[in-house]
């Protein structure tokens, strides 16, 4: 699974049943603002994209219209046409995304995500193959490269998907994808704040080390703490708004 494929697994995972147009607009808008979808990149066809997201083409067209009005995509007609990403004029606004969420909602989301991430890391420590661990270590090393900053959100998401895949559990991997799509943009944003990056990398390194050594309890505990720390930062920020 390369970075682009991992990003698409998250961006194009099925959306919740409630307020689907808004959910699609938020999902794709977040992905563009965070760099998970690149400027000028062509989105899948309407039929493919609606299928990935689990929505009707009518719902998708409403969402694409809203994204066009926001200046986040442009649609070209004729041969070679389709919907193309336009880089936003302003970066991802964490405060704007946090305002509709209460501290209780953030904590509940965090509890669920920590449980999934912890279980995936524990099973990865038990079941991962040497090739799985090699991929984790390559991703970890790539995150330390001097040119990694613009791609950090993409790399962070890829590492977590690789850990879930190493658990050899299809259901856990699917849930990791869904949760990254729902709360991942918030966690990635808070992880990318000044002063947080070094601590986040150290947490990633401890998870990978525990998976590589087959230390199930350590892998679970560090993965749960990794999520919990991000949620606490999000709650603290939300309470200041």
From TrEMBL:
What is a single molecular function from GO for this protein?
A: DNA-binding transcription factor activity
Question: Could you tell me which PROSITE patterns the record lists for this protein?
Answer: HTH_GNTR
* Keyword entries, A-Z: DNA-binding, Transcription, Transcription regulation
The protein's matches in SUPFAM superfamilies, at most eight in alphabetical order, are given as: GntR ligand-binding domain-like, Winged helix' DNA-binding domain
What SMART domains does the annotation carry?
FCD, HTH_GNTR
Domain (HTH gntR-type): give its ranges: 18-88
Q: Which Gene3D superfamilies match?
A: GntR ligand-binding domain-like, Winged helix-like DNA-binding domain superfamily/Winged helix DNA-binding domain
Fetch the PANTHER family from UniProt: GLUCONATE OPERON TRANSCRIPTIONAL REPRESSOR, TRANSCRIPTIONAL REGULATOR, GNTR FAMILY
Q: What is the protein's name according to its record?
A: GntR family transcriptional regulator
Organism listed in the record: Actinomadura verrucosospora
Q: Organism classification, top ranks?
A: Bacteria, Bacillati, Actinomycetota, Actinomycetes, Streptosporangiales
């Amino acid at each position: 699974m390369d970075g682009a494929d991992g990003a698409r697994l998250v961006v194009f995972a099925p959306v919740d049943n409630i307020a689907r147009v808004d959910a699609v607009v938020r999902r794709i808008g977040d992905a563009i603002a965070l760099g998970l979808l690149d400027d000028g990149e062509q989105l899948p066809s309407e039929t493919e994209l609606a299928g990935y997201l689990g929505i009707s083409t009518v719902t998708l067209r409403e969402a694409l219209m809203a994204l066009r009005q926001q200046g986040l995509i442009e649609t070209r007609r004729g041969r070679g046409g389709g919907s193309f990403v336009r880089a936003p004029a302003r970066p991802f606004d964490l405060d704007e995304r946090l305002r509709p969420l209460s501290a209780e909602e953030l904590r509940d989301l965090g509890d669920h995500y920590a449980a999934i991430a912890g279980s995936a890391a524990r099973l990865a420590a038990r079941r991962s193959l040497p090739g799985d661990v090699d991929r984790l270590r390559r991703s970890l090393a790539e995150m330390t490269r001097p040119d990694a900053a613009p791609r950090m959100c993409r790399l962070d998401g890829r590492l977590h998907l690789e850990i879930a895949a190493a658990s050899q559990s299809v259901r856990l991997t699917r849930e990791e994808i869904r949760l990254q799509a729902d709360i991942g943009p918030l966690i990635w944003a808070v992880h990318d704040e000044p002063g947080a990056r070094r601590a986040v990398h150290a947490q990633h390194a401890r998870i990978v080390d525990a998976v590589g050594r087959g230390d199930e309890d350590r892998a679970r505990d560090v993965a749960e703490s990794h999520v919990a720390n991000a949620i606490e930062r999000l709650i603290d920020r939300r309470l200041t708004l």
